[in-house]
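Q: Sequence in, structure out?
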Amino acid sequence: MQLVTHSTKKILQLCIILAICGCNLYVNPLQAQNDSLSKEAKKDKTELEKVEKLLSFKNLFHRSDSSKLAKRYIRWHKKLTRDNPDYRFTIKKDDLKDSIGWKPDNSNALTKEIFGWYPYWDKNLYKSLNYSLLSTVAYFSYEVNPKTGDTLTTNGWLTEPSVDVITNKDKRVLLTITNFGYKENRQFLKNPSAGNLLIQRAIELIKAKGANGVCIDFEGIPKSQKKNFNSFIAQFGQELREANKDFKLYLTIPALDYNEYLDFETLTPVVDQFIIMGYDYYGKTSKVAGPVAPLHSGTLWSPINLNTSVALYLKKGVPSDQLILALPFYGQVWNTKTGDRKAKVDKYVGARTYDYIRHEMSKVPIIKARYDSISQSNYYSYILKESGSNKRQFRQIWFDSDSTMAAKMRLVNTKQLNGLGIWALGYNKKYDNYWKVIEDVFVAKPADSLQPVVIQYPDSVVVIFKDASASIGSATQGIPGAPNSSNNAEVITEKPTAFEKFWKKVTNLNEVLDGLNDFKKFLVLALLFVVFFGGAGFIIALFKPETRIFLFSSSALTLYYVAFVLLFVLAVFLNWNTPVFNQSIVLIIGFIVGAVSLYFINKIVQKKYSNLP
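A: Exactly. Output:
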């Protein structure tokens, strides 16, 4: 009887310990829900703080590996615009092939503005454009003579039939005006008469074609020309509206305003839309191969990504409904030293259109597309063997498939931006995947026509609602080894079990290590517990017989150790495998497991003592 009473006391003591431990894990259901909903916001905030810290002078000498990548990215953009004004045209024009594009259901309205640059070199593109999924087309481009402000070339603006055809489709048509390079922009902006002549010529040209305005794309603005640049844009906007109150002024802005030349107090009243160039985060001068347009960075990539680019401009006071996020319809190619993710670069090969990448890689179906869940990007990694030689070369191609492009397009909705930009129309010509994604993300469907659609992406299952009569692109249609999707509501892809999720994380060490970053405080405390309690106790036990007796001869203390370890493992397992798990359940399960375990262990102990002579 005394043994039972003693055991009961031990059970009560253990329950108190479990309650204390459980309280540290417990969060009420509403708080747990809020935590899960704000997870993305916290990630965005963390990445934004990293970028701001990198740009802060006081932290100039406290750079991490990520900051070095960010600095390389900044230097790369400067080098491109300063040394090679034509870097945008590295896309191979000969790889663009004529074909009739996918014809979507055009009876439904776009929920966002869809803006696309029309490259002058693709003269027959207008015959196959999906006009029902376009709002604004910017003809690329009028090239400025920086000395005078007059025209170097309009690249067929007045003579090509494409402008007239697009105008007749009732789409907004803009003339893109370009000036690239530090030297060229400094020369132009220091000359007010050059600015006056450019404005005059631009208004004449858009009136001549019945267009709707201009898109100004000046890249490589020296910080010393900040005042001149902002004054020029303000003057352009004013004179444009004096010529026609309905004329529009769009302005491209870099992914990161590294020269801090943009004065939004001056620009916001006169600019209709700011277009964030959300691409070339990794490219020609990158030291490692990486995503062209990363959605997130984690600890693997430079902290500058699509989320931080948008967040920085919103923080500077740009209204979200005046921002368009432009995404790349192309990929980047490198020769690398290894086949690993984030492999060091041997040589930059160049940019290639999505059309080119899909066409060429379809010839070698044995090569599978890989998926980087951090940046939400796809890449190929393979070995080339030079003809007539035994030399082998690693090569990587980074690009976006349907699912990764969809994730980035949804950022437009998440951040409540005005719309999506495309660089450039025609780069996906033979393949309709991106247009299907645009329809899925940005076309409003009548409520009575919606049907559930299950899409299995590489690391998740997404249910959306779509018109039953419309088609939907596979998550990575046409890419070897990629998952499939279905628009049949009866075909449901079962969600992975907790064990499957756990095993997937174990088999992908890189993603596990990146994911552990979110639990670093918890892991540090656990490590301290193991080191100071377990380590110290073990060492002392080696030299102090009385310590060994005290720690391990007591069955009650042994039960405490076992129960605590069980609860600790259970809590880690539940939080790891079920991120949105209602954490109050962890407390309940902790009590149940601890109490049941102690009950049966105590039964065994009682039986052992009852059999003693």
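The longest strand covers residues 136-144.
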